[in-house]
What we know:
Keywords: Signal. This protein is an alpha/beta fold.
Amino acid sequence: MKLQLSALLAASTLAAAQPANWSKFLKNNHNTEVNSLATNATGFNSTATNSSGWGNWTVSNSTQDAHKDIFKVIITGGDFKLDNSSHLEYEYCYNQTNALNLTQLYEVAEIVNTTISDDRYKAVVIVSGGDSMESLGFLNSILIDSEKPVVISQSDAYGIAVANKTASKGTLVVTNDDYVYPGVFSPYSTRYSSFGGVPVAACGDDLSVNYFFESYETKFLSGNSTIRKNFTDFTNYNATKDLDTLPVVPIIAESELSATVLESLAASVDAIVVVATEDDRDTIKTVDDYSNVGVPVVFAKSINTYPFLSDAAVPTGTCSAGYLSPTKAQLLLSIALINGVTNVEDIVTLFP
């Protein structure tokens, strides 16, 4: 049987050199409108590397040093149009349609954290391909403990609009159907549709942002939550730099499990996410007891089944991901392992 590991665990490939012609590069690689770039070229500064030395590119207006309330727009994919405004700064990281891997997600989080720690910046907008929306929303919600807006969108126009109308709501995700979600409850990964999210606002065709609630705080990441109180190291966006290898956390369907497969997996991975594929928990009797597997095993609900998976419904020696999707469960396990949390009893407390 062939097992597919998530794209989160793929190797990171980063651009090392600046294109000779920035305007031509954007047109060829992003299908992006750059109408104002040619006529306003003198108003932009291009730098060969950012502070992290990744070979990324920053395009900013030369008058920004005199301004505050700047919005940083981080490009990882999606659609964007360069705007020669004094309050906008663009930083190009990737041109990617597939899901960002774990290394790339942490690199983006480092840029976000550095930016929001600077008083000149009011908000961060991350423009992303559809397959990375869920991962960017969830990971930044955990790593970035700030009330400054961090908005993930496939379009910079809607991302900037939401960031501009959001005073202190932390990480948000704007989907293509124009709903706004907390990063923790971002819809499941899909390029075309949204599933399982909990929206907090709706955008109008005039780029208005209409919130459903006066205020909200997700219990999962509130100030009194287990993660914020007991696992404060999870906000360390540099944690991966101290590791020789990143944790391997595959996602596998419950129907594909057997004792043999489980034994083979446990010998080569750091944790396992199992997708519970059946509503009736008695219909699959693959493995009844996971107590001796040797690595943490988390069962997560599939997209098309029940909205919450309880601990009572999963086998002995495992825990449930509650309302978290398989991708979110994989990310949470990865963050925990990166920060040295390997004890199963501690990992159980992380999940809702």
